[in-house]
Amino acid sequence: MSKVVLQAKNRQKAGSAESRKMRRSGRIPAVLYGRSGKAVSIDLDASEFIKGTKGISESTIVNIDVEGKAYDAFVKSAQRNIIDGNILHIDFYEVESGVALRAKVSLHLHGNPVGVREGGMLESPLHEIEIECLPKDLPERIEIDISDLKANHSIHVRDIPLAQGVRLLSNPDQVVALVKFAKAEVVAAPTAEAAVAAAGAAPAAGAAPAAGAAAAAPADKKAAPAADKKAGDKK
């Protein structure tokens, strides 16, 4: 992708009223922060910025031409109106040629993993890594082919191929992508002993009484006449 070039002007006046006037005229107020801490107030055409930066990532370096003086910079942040989404203000961060920088680069996975085709589930917990390199070596994004990823296998940060001159700063043991099978919930069948015990503990309604209970009933009937006889003797 060719470098994005944005035309800008030095901003002579500051303040909220001046910024609102600038936006009404189709321009965006911005600040370009240098590595030494120096800040340059600029403004640029809104439509040109939106068109030129469409699809770029946070690690894309753009060229800002401020009335003939060129700067290489990141789009550090863009403040938007919460109602209509229009850009209200932009912060740029300058990078110096020949001086190493640190940046976070997004990871883009592509391909249909073998493990997914076999019924597994793909997880991708990490979406960017931090690297250090010269501005000329900074990638806009890192593409990772996961087509050969099998079930119960994973790709770590240490497995990502990096270009010469690019140093990894993120934890190399972090997982980028993995395929795993979902565990099926298994309900154990009751054992034969458990089934017999359950049946004995709760007899069905209307079932015949146990042998011990049947034997106890006649004994009660014999006891009643004996009690009546004792009562007659007292009379």
Please tell me how large the radius of gyration is.
40 Å
Number of E-state strands:
13
In angstroms, what separates the terminal alpha carbons? 125 Å
Beta-strand content estimate? 25-35%
H and E string: EHEEHEEEEHEEEEEEHH
Mean pLDDT: 82
How much helical structure, as a percent, in the residues?
Answer: 10-25%
Q: Count helical runs.
A: 5
Order of strands, main sheet, comes to 1-3-2-6-5-4
Largest sheet: 6 strands, mixed, barrel
Summarize the helices and strands and which ones pair or pack.
Layout: E1 5-10, H1 16-24, E2 27-33, E3 39-45, H2 46-52, E4 62-66, E5 69-80, E6 87-95, E7 101-110, H3 114-117, E8 121-123, E9 128-133, E10 141-145, E11 153-156, E12 167-168, E13 175-180, H4 192-201, H5 211-234
Parallel strand pairs: 1-4, 2-6, 7-10
Antiparallel strand pairs: 1-3, 2-3, 4-5, 5-6, 7-9, 8-13, 9-12, 11-13
